[in-house]
């Protein structure tokens, strides 16, 4: 060690090794550069793809950047000409919208995504929204079949039985709700009690615990 400390040649060789240069077939190990990604970013990459969609008003939007980022949201899948669970869920979500009051369209947003984009054009979805008298803050969405299928799978609206999963008439009538900034998410049947759905969503707004229909959340 004393010799290395006093030898200019030895010092130069050590310097070469530290920089990662090859010396007699030996390469000094380099520090590993781990990818620095936040939990929020990892969740986005796994479950919230920023695919292109079109609203029932004909506006082009990006799912994550325009619809979900920094918001509290409630999401379900449906299609206009549905003889199954869709009409009941849509009617129930109208009650949810009413229970959430004027927060819908401000810091809470509702999204219904069609499972049949080949049929449900923006015009069809606009007429559907008008028929149900949907108010501000609730948007119906369509897009390419590939983008919607990716969203459906990433958001977890799938059936473990592949045969049932492929049949859109048997689609899951659940709703998924979340607070994107806090990375808090949950889900429940779309036909659950409307007050329960609203309160479940607002529980994710902790510690605010806003009121729903005159009752404090958690009371």
Give the topology.
Elements: H1 2-6, H2 8-18, E1 22-23, E2 26-27, H3 39-47, E3 52-55, E4 60-62, H4 63-68, E5 72-78, H5 86-100, E6 108-114, H6 122-131, E7 138-142, H7 145-154, H8 162-166, E8 174-179, E9 184-189, H9 194-203, E10 211-212, E11 215-216
Parallel strand pairs: 5-6, 6-7
Antiparallel strand pairs: 1-2, 3-4, 3-7, 5-8, 8-9, 10-11
Helix pairs in contact: 5-9
- Main sheet properties: 7 strands, mixed
State Rg: 26 Å
Unreliable residue stretches: 1-23, 212-219
Average pLDDT value?
A: 83
Number of strands: 11
User: What would you call the shape?
Assistant: globular
Structural class call reads alpha+beta
In whole angstroms, the N-to-C terminal distance is 72 Å
Helix content: 25-40%
Cross-sheet strand order for the largest sheet: 4-3-7-6-5-8-9
- Number of helical segments with 4 or more residues: 9
Measured by DSSP, the beta-strand proportion falls in: 15-25%
Secondary-structure element order, as H and E? HHEEHEEHEHEHEHHEEHEE
């Amino acid at each position: 060690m004393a010799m290395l400390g006093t030898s200019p040649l030895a010092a130069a060789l050590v310097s070469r090794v530290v920089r990662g240069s090859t010396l007699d077939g030996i390469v000094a190990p380099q520090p590993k550069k781990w990818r620095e990604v936040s939990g929020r970013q990892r969740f986005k990459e796994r479950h919230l793809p920023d695919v292109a969609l079109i609203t029932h008003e004909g506006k082009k939007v990006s799912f994550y950047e325009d619809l979900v980022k920094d918001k509290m949201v409630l999401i379900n899948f449906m299609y206009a000409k549905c003889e199954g669970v869709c009409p009941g869920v849509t009617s129930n979500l109208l009650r949810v919208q009413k229970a959430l009051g004027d927060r819908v369209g401000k810091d809470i947003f509702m999204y219904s995504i069609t499972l049949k984009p080949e049929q449900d054009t923006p015009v069809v979805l606009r007429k559907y929204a008008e028929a149900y008298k949907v108010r501000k803050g609730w948007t119906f969405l369509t897009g390419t079949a590939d983008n919607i299928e990716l969203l459906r799978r990433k958001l977890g609206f799938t059936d473990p039985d592949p045969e049932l999963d492929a049949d859109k008439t048997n689609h899951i009538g659940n709703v998924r709700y979340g607070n994107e900034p806090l990375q808090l998410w949950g889900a429940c049947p779309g036909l659950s009690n409307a007050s329960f759905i609203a309160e479940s969503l607002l529980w994710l707004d902790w510690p605010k615990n806003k009121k729903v229909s005159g009752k404090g959340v958690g009371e």
